[in-house]
Structure formats: structure tokens, C-alpha cells
Amino acid sequence: MSKYDLFRKRIAPIAFGVAIVLMARQSCDKHTQTHADVVFDFGAADVRAVHAELWSPTDQLATFDRSALDGHAIGKVELAHAPLPDGDAELRVDVTLPRGQRHAVRHLHGDDGATILVKLADDLK
What we know:
By secondary structure, the chain is an alpha+beta fold. It has one domain (34-124): Immunoglobulins (Immunoglobulin-like), CATH 2.60.40. It contains 1 helix and 7 strands, in the order H-E-E-E-E-E-E-E. The protein has one helix spanning 3-29, and strands at 33-41, 49-55, 60-67, 77-85, 89-97, 100-108, 115-119. The strands form 2 sheets. Strands 3-2-5-6 form a 4-stranded antiparallel β-sheet, with no helix packed on it. A 3-stranded mixed β-sheet has the order 4-1-7, with no helix packed on it. A hairpin with a 2-residue loop joins strand 5 (89-97) and strand 6. The radius of gyration is 20 Å and the shape is elongated.
């Protein structure tokens, strides 16, 4: 049996079955997720870069990265249509300032289509 025949007869059907199972799982889990816009409020801080991770209790749902050009600050930062679980989610944010890096954690809960304002000004002082 050649490698092509091995792939065609044994490996390809298994890979196809795994793909079908994963698509079915994703479609079944859609009813337990909502989507919301997450807007970051840095206050007057001179923010140079942002890295954010959105976590459900068990899985990472989304990541977000934005960096400013050299010598400039970031403007408005928004994580649009973020997938939120039916319950609460945890937002882990790393912000780079000219004087160092800050880390903040926020717990989020939002309705479908909501805009969630994440105030980080006090953490960046």
C-alpha cells in the first residue's frame, strides 16, 4: 500500500470525521455565546501598546493587540464583537506606557450587542 493510498483510505476519513465533530460542537455552542463591543478607557495615560485576552472560565475566547507608532500614543481602542460566554468572562489587559508595563484584570458580563466600557485609568497611574 502506497503512502497516497494510506492517506486516502485511512487518514482522510478520520480527519473528515474530526472536522465534522468540531463544526457540530461550534454550532451547538453558539447559543451560549453573546457578542459585545469592549471599549478601553485609559484616561489621560500615554499608552504605547495594548495586549488583551478574553477568557471564559475554561477557554481563551479572543486576543487583541495594538501598538502605536514610535513616539506616538494609541487613540481609541475597541475590541469589536467580542465573543462573551453566557456567564461571566475575564479580561486580562497588559498596557505598555513610556515608564513601564501595567497589568489589569476585569470581570465582564454583557448582553448581546452591548458596549462594555473598561476603565483602566486608575490602574495606569
